[in-house]
Design goal:
Family (chains A, B): Belongs to the diaminopimelate dehydrogenase family.
Radius of gyration of chain A: 22 Å
Shape of chain A: globular
Strand content of chain A: 25-35%
Largest interface: A-B, 69 and 69 residues
Oligomer: homodimer
Distance between the termini of chain A: 26 Å
Pathway (chains A, B): Amino-acid biosynthesis; L-lysine biosynthesis via DAP pathway; DL-2,6-diaminopimelate from (S)-tetrahydrodipicolinate: step 1/1
Order of helices and strands of chain A: EHEEEHEHEHEEHEHHEHEHEEHEH
Number of helices of chain A: 11
InterPro entries (chains A, B): Diaminopimelate_DH_Ddh (IPR010190), Meso-DAP_DH_C (IPR032094), NAD(P)-bd_dom_sf (IPR036291)
Number of strands of chain A: 14
Keywords (chains A, B): Amino-acid biosynthesis, Diaminopimelate biosynthesis, Lysine biosynthesis, NADP, Nucleotide-binding, Oxidoreductase
CATH class of the largest domain in chain A: Alpha Beta
Helix content of chain A: 25-40%
Strand order of the largest sheet of chain A: 3-2-1-4-5-6-14
CATH topology of the largest domain in chain A: Rossmann fold
Subunit structure (chains A, B): Homodimer.
Structural class of chain A: alpha/beta
Chain lengths: 328, 328
């Protein structure tokens, strides 16, 4: 019997919890410990044998963990945590601040290379699977246009924005791809589309008692950057309805390339996701790429890597023979 | 200036012609020669500097060609040609007889390894891009079901079959995915579906003068293996209509995985292609993977490879820095 890949999780928010679920579905992996900044005693882990450990004790686990899944946020956690942990462990993270990826890569690459570790950064679906499809579609169809649509999905930033409006007690915002725009892209017309032409925004708002709903609706719809440029819909609902119908974190989207070959033949390449749970899916991608980090590290391929550097076979638990025979 | 990747093409049918078109769209590549079993003088190549050469003289071009695109058929050409050419060149082919891939891989791997060549086999969209998506979707979502639908596409084998029916002068057959089945899969229901439940078949037939159309329709619809198990539609049209409306080779299809994570959250992963020209698209994939064959060979990664062994960055003309900055 081959031994299992031993994983640790840093951070026990939605992503970390999703990682626990994903590891349960992976017979070739085992979870050793969850590392937290909170009191480890406060973590409720219902998996036998898995320890909750304070994050400051992680260095004691270098011999017991093959790959560390970094499940913190991109704003403040990962810029610090990935370089820190990549000096001790192979890592996988979901750093998704697109504009800062080059400097993040540099910082992680330096540490990981120096300490002979493999650190796969910016894993998930965007960045991640969507990134792979943008690159592959363009490599295969050099003449054409690539479009990314997001949604239907709960947007954390926009939900925060509507909740700051006066008179709003609670609320959520969904980003929804504009069906007309998608159909135009799928037709091969390669239209010019702004982000606001590609998406509409739908809000579900619980107003405070006696609040001026018309004023709330107006303030949301005219909010610069967030809503003013978009086709925005505002719905008022009760606190009960919000809890009942809007407590999940669905997301998804589309990458579509309209390419042309030969005498103007349209070739439409499309990748899409429709996710009931964004954090659980992102965590599932992290766990699959942990397999790749483990294997790359065994091949002495150290340093920072992205999904672009990882061949598909590295994320699959199946053997090369099996893949050729049953999946090709 | 970096020098271009120098390509040769073996076989000048629809796939070889598609490869010429794809190379024209790739500024980092140049076509050196097309090799043919026919009289090279008979080839009409409208590209300056590109030679038409008899296939038996290919060995003279080992110093001039970095990667050879093998554009023959899977039934008889490639089982002979790939092992032959992989002793002299890095190669890419589109071998698509699924059941024979393991033995084909063995034969090619032996030759390519011995001669320090890189041979990427079974490249295209199925096998090829669809294969990648079947493996990645399952690796990410271990719990679930994967479905492959083909079409709308012209099926060569089924078109040949209808043309053999008595009274049929000419005809074509399209395989069309059953919309209801796709919708069921997209809903996350993970239904059990046979190939015949996933597809329907539509024929456009030109009957001979005075032929018994009812008999033709009946013979097609009851033909074992090909049509009997399917929802089959037979349309009679004129020779002019056939020439006008059915002379292209469209194809495409869908790979969909309905996965589950955590407490029964549905996660739908979908990849699809809608192609005006099947051979031009397949050739475009071959040309992109020729880039990978060239790079792998430069890294001394010799032997037979499949799309599972190729990281996305290897097929892109862009640098790793560019990909991280602009595409991740």
């Amino acid at each position: 019997m081959t031994s299992k890949i031993r994983l640790g999780i840093v951070g026990y928010g939605n992503l970390g919890k999703g990682a626990v679920e994903a590891i349960k579905q992976s017979p070739d992996m085992e979870l050793v410990a969850v590392f937290t900044r909170r009191d480890p005693e406060s973590l409720v882990l219902d998996i036998p044998g898995v320890k909750a450990v304070h994050i400051s004790d992680a260095s004691d686990y270098q011999a017991e963990i093959d790959v560390m899944l970094l499940c913190g946020g991109s704003a403040t956690d990962l810029p610090e945590q990935t370089p820190h942990f990549a000096s001790m462990f192979n890592t996988v993270d979901s750093f998704d601040t697109h504009a800062k990826i080059p400097e993040f890569y540099q910082a992680v690459n330096e540490v990981a290379t120096k300490h002979n570790k493999t650190a796969i950064i910016s894993v998930g679906w965007d960045p991640g699977l969507f990134s792979i499809n943008r690159v592959m579609a363009e490599a295969i169809l050099p003449s054409g246009e690539t479009y990314t649509f997001w949604g239907k999905g709960l947007s954390q930033g926009h939900s925060d924005a509507v909740r700051r409006v006066e008179g709003v007690k609670n609320g959520v915002q969904y980003t929804i791809p504009a069906e007309q725009a998608i159909e135009k892209v799928r037709s091969g017309a390669n239209p010019e589309l702004t982000t606001s032409e590609k998406h509409r925004r739908v809000c579900y708002i619980v107003a405070e008692d006696g609040a001026d709903k018309a004023a709330i609706e107006n303030e949301i719809k005219t909010m610069p950057n967030y809503f003013a440029d978009y086709d925005t819909e505002v719905n008022f609902i009760s606190a009960e309805e919000l809890a009942r119908d809007h407590s999940k974190a669905p997301h998804g989207g589309f990458v579509i390339r309209g390419g042309n070959t030969g005498e103007n033949n349209n070739q439409i390449y499309e990748f899409s996701l429709k996710l009931d749970s964004n954090p659980e899916f992102t965590a599932s991608v992290l766990v699959a790429y942990a397999r790749a980090a483990y294997r790359l590290s065994n091949e002495n391929q150290f340093g920072a890597k992205t999904v672009y550097d990882v061949a598909p076979s590295y994320i699959s638990p199946r053997s090369a023979e099996e893949l050729r025979r049953d999946y090709l």
